[in-house]
Amino acid sequence: MFDKILIANRGEIACRVAATCARMGIRTVAVYSSADAQAKHVAACDEAIFIGVKDSDSGGNAPKDSYLRWQAIIAAAQATGAQAIHPGYGFLSENEEFAQACADAGLVFIGPPPSAIKAMGLKAESKQLMEKAGVPLVPGYHGANQDAALLKKEATRIGYPVLIKASAGGGGKGMRAVDSAEDFDAALLSCKREAINSFGDDAVLIEKYVQRPRHIEIQVFGDAHGNYVYLFERDCSVQRRHQKVLEEAPAPGMTQALREQMGAAAVAAARAVQYQGAGTVEFIVEQKPGGEMNFFFMEMNTRLQVEHPVTEAITGLDLVEWQLRVASGEKLPLQQEQLRISGHAIEARICAENPDNNFLPATGTLQVYAKPAHSAFVQPGNDSAGVVRFDDGVRQGDAISPFYDSMIAKLIVHGASRAEALAKLDKALAQTHIVGLHTNMQFLRHVVTSPSFAQANLDTGLIPREAAVLFHQKKLSAAQAAASHMAHTLLGERSTETADPFSRRDGWRAFGTHTRRLHLQWHEQDVHAELSYLHDGALHLKVDQAQGVLSFARQGNGAVTVDFAGQRWDAHCYAFPTAQGTETHIFTAAAATVIAAIDPFLQTADAAASTGRLSAPMPGKVVSFAVKPGDVVKAGQALAVMEAMKMEHTIAAPKDGTVAELLYTPGDQVVEGAELLTLEA
Q1: Is 157 in the active site?
Q2: What is the pTM of this model?
């Protein structure tokens, strides 16, 4: 076994690997960029080495200037005496050149051999290999000819809708669904551009877009002694932009016969490339009337997956420990007949993004980062029933930057049944409080409680199908938000009282009743409230049409129990000053919301100044402009493309107008709010 390894990654996966190594007595070395100098994964390891290029355009933060610099990573491993390198996932984890360079430098790459990465790394070639191995394939074009006219002709032959996929891609990058021939050319260009930026290779393949598909993958392991096993399946059908949102194991509705067929196919795929270590064989599963399911090989990810914790939860195994043992030359710890499924596990990916604004990536500082009571990374010995697990690589006060993936953390629950796991997940999500930037926390709760997910009516179109109950939801009323805000505010005021009677904040008046009038904003709506201090000490609150006595009490866990207008609820409140007053973030068992109190002395109005301006909705890079000065545009027309957190985003015209000026050029880095171009009415 190794004495020391270098972890060539960041965030929660680096922390995850460090935790297993610590349990096994293996010392670890972290690598970091300028942005990650104080990151959690750096503190989790025994040593740390800076690998960024400080004088680069990104200041050593962009992946190409830090975590993709494999020569610097190998040099760091050699300098610190590490014997092996764990690549995590993303970045260099599926880079054949890096794996070979590790071997040439006398270092163990904790992953498959370079030949396996090469064989499975290009989707077209891997499809051809799988066909020879007898693994079922989706109808498509996997050829080397990349002429645009030929690709379009092949798409017509296959039949729309089709899926364009970057041959060297993964993680939803360089992938576009196309419904008609009219949309093909633009989708192909965008797909190729994203592929070259993400993988340095713009080759694509075309496949039939399977209707009502489920995305089910099989976890496989192989060792250097010719042993192979599959550790059952994961359902990853809930996706946005071809990226997974929720994953669960085992897959709902999976029969033992189908599980064995898919497991055998996955092992056949691994054997075909003499695979070693952890890998995932991904299948598209076609659902036919009557419940019959057909499966087709999609791709093999030659690394550990983001969703590996759900497999650990149902098997009671530490897959990182298996990786380390196999890489050190040991045989697989267990054989197929020794593996068992216990209970049900679900993982939710907590991301910095705004689902109500087309999942736009978000950046900011974690002003509040409160997590539910949770376990360590894994409970070896299959005793993880009921566990809540939280994998992350950040702490309160950390900044989420635009340079890396938007995922903040992973929340994993395990229960005796799927229903129990669902209940635990919703409760754990409710107990997770994040303030400082947009996240998908409430969206995840909406998905978990949606009819389709709750009833396991799964396919990759679940999110658009359930859009009516997933987006722009207001699970708390304006009255509840205002009452929670007032309760929190009054408790704060009372905490400043002393024995001096003149310090009292009870609104006492010798004659008459004191009434406080508040201007609040909730979901961009103006809300007017009046709080009256009655002579008997009671408080009367009126919020628009709701009114009644307001009472409240602080609980031991920091929550406030609020009683108003015939309703009672517990709320955790976090208030922060803003340019216009105070913003209070409210978290309850039912939902979360934000309400702002407007101070008339601070309020400013600059809406007029922004007329005709188009600003960057997030920090990132300008990829291209689709217009030039003087062009007449219509509302909704694409004007520019930006790239942030490894994804492309189109900026559209908010109204009809004429382009007056372009203020940046393609390739420029811009901050959030930067004016990109101006429109004249």
Answers
A1: no
A2: 0.84
